[in-house]
Amino acid sequence: MNEQLLNRVLRQAEALCARRGARLTPQRRRVLELVCRAERPIGAYELLDQVRDGGKAAPPTVYRALDFLLEQGLIHKLETLHAFIGCTHPDHPHSSQFLICADCGKVTELEDAALLGSLHSAAAESGFSPQRPVIEVIGTCARCAHKPDRPAD
Amino acid sequence: MNEQLLNRVLRQAEALCARRGARLTPQRRRVLELVCRAERPIGAYELLDQVRDGGKAAPPTVYRALDFLLEQGLIHKLETLHAFIGCTHPDHPHSSQFLICADCGKVTELEDAALLGSLHSAAAESGFSPQRPVIEVIGTCARCAHKPDRPAD
DNA sequence: ACCAGGAATGTAACGATATAACAGCCCCAA
DNA sequence: TTGGGGCTGTTATATCGTTACATTCCTGGT
Ligand SMILES: [Zn+2]
Ligand SMILES: [Zn+2]
Ligand SMILES: [Zn+2]
Ligand SMILES: [Zn+2]
Fold it and tell me: Which amino acid positions bind Zn(2+), per UniProt (chains A, B) (predicted)?
């Protein structure tokens, strides 16, 4: 996430939390910023290292911040990677899908209505009521597909 | 999985492995049977307890069997639960979807072509080549939706 | 039958991810 | 001012998964 987008996201986060009466404390804001600055999904313990930064901090510090940010929809958790990414459009609640490149590790967040529709149709046939769809697709991104070969294998 | 289906699955597993030159050893067959007998997704350490059954066994024993069974498509892993279920139709390779009831824990395996189609379309728009789609839907199953209330909350 | 050599298993230790439980702090509201 | 709820600190522990290396088993070539 570039600097400009990051600033926008942080401002949106503050506005959203204010509107909702949720407290985006410095600790939480710090974790949000770290997640968003990471070019790739980032793990909780990796975050912990950065939060410590010489000082002291324990897992609950980071996990509690992550829980808050997840509740507010400011970040997403990638179940297949046990890692987190910042949401680029937290302004509205959404159920999104993730394209995860197994080669370069980059993740693209989609919000595909047709895909969600298919999912709801399929669930409905079984009388099932979806509450939290988890859709994560491991594959190869366009950039990596164009690479002629793995350069440094 | 009922006894009849279990027996069919075990026979299919033997046939498949034989055809592929893969060795469905007693250990692996045992783990497959334990996974299939479980009414719900079962975790690796839970399996380990049952594999031990008084004797001795260590995590790699179970994880290696699980790896083999996953490779052969005889079981599936549920990423959101860190648990495993037996595949009810291992005769052909497939990418399936899972409906996970948050109330009773039951899991339904789907193989919905339309849903997969939507997924591929959505991915294609981003130039992304899917290799392993992970689709797990947390929600409420038909049975649990009909319950008037949580009986013992 | 014999003997590699690879596949499968046993065993001990460790690493990574996540939560429980309880204590102290801060801020606002009654 | 005095709770009380929300946030944070701290320690320990639970849960999930892997590494590394020794041993055993099976198989295929001779
Ligand atoms: Zn998002
Ligand atoms: Zn890539
Ligand atoms: Zn299946
Ligand atoms: Zn249910």
Answer: 101, 104, 141, 144
pLDDT in tens, B99-121: 999 999 999 999 999 999 999 99
Was A101 annotated as part of a binding site? yes
Distance B125 CA to ligand 2 centre (A): 15
Question: Where are chain B's structural domains?
Answer: 3-86, 97-145
In this complex, the residue of A121, A129, A133 whose CB is nearest that of residue B140 is: A129
DSSP chain A: --HHHHHHHHHHHHHHHHHHT----HHHHHHHHHHHH-SS-B-HHHHHHHHHTTS---HHHHHHHHHHHHHTTSEEEETTTTEEEE-S-TTS----EEEEETTT--EEEE--HHHHHHHHHHHHHTT-EEEEEEEEEEEE-HHHHHSSS-TT-
In chain A, the percentage of residues whose pLDDT exceeds 70 is: 96
Quickly name the fold that domain B3-86 has: Arc Repressor Mutant, subunit A (1.10.10)
A&B contacts, CB < 8 Å: 127
Residue B6 clears pLDDT 90, i.e. is over it:
yes
CATH assignment, B97-145: 3.30.1490.190
